[in-house]
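Propose amino acids for all 198 sites.
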């Protein structure tokens, strides 16, 4: 098991970061908010989860140990694989997920692309005793935009989650400009909410 990776960020893509560790470039698949906090050339330490399949080894990177823990726990639910688990971490704060499960709030869970009503109800049933109660110390919801405009980043993130370019562009257009420094994670959630209402 690779518990965490520490090294220089060598490259960033729409869905992953390459971190150089001891001369080896490791590709970590990350959420949009985690990627927004990274920039090429910076030193970074990311908690990681290694997913082993017959034909692949995939490394997922996270902004915090809490996100990693949520990622691992939600995969114990029938039908939830690594990609869907990553989408859950991308869309819902850990405390938001805990509160939704504790309060039987299936509607909140269906904000995640790929989670329908039946899937949300199954998650509530299977996670009830595994996530614990909301702790009230949710992490900051994202990081300031480092390079591209927040609209570009949110649109790319939506496409990374499976939406087509037209729907992603329409969703971003419906999100008002933020006051102060853009918070990519919060803006992504706002765009997803707009898509779920459409």
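Proposal:
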């Amino acid at each position: 098991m690779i518990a965490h990776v520490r090294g220089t960020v060598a490259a960033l893509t729409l869905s992953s970061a390459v971190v150089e560790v001891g001369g080896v470039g490791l590709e970590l698949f990350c959420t949009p908010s985690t990627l927004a906090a990274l920039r090429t050339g910076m030193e970074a330490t990311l908690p990681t989860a290694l997913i082993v399949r017959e034909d692949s080894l995939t490394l997922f990177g996270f902004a915090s140990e809490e996100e990693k823990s949520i990622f691992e726990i939600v995969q114990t639910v029938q039908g939830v694989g690594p990609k869907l688990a990553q989408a859950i971490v991308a869309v819902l704060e850990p405390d938001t997920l805990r509160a939704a499960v504790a309060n039987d709030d299936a509607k909140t869970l269906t904000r995640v692309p790929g989670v329908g009503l039946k899937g949300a109800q199954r998650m509530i049933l299977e996670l009830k005793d595994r996530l614990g109660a909301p702790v009230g110390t949710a992490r900051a919801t994202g990081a300031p935009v480092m390079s591209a405009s927040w609209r570009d980043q949110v649109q790319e993130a939506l496409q990374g989650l499976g939406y087509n370019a037209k729907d992603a562009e329409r969703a971003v257009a419906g999100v008002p400009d933020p006051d102060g420094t853009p918070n990519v994670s919060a803006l992504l959630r706002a765009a997803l909410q707009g898509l779920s209402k459409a």
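The domain at 65-127 is CATH 1.10.150.20 (DNA polymerase; domain 1). The mean pLDDT is 84.
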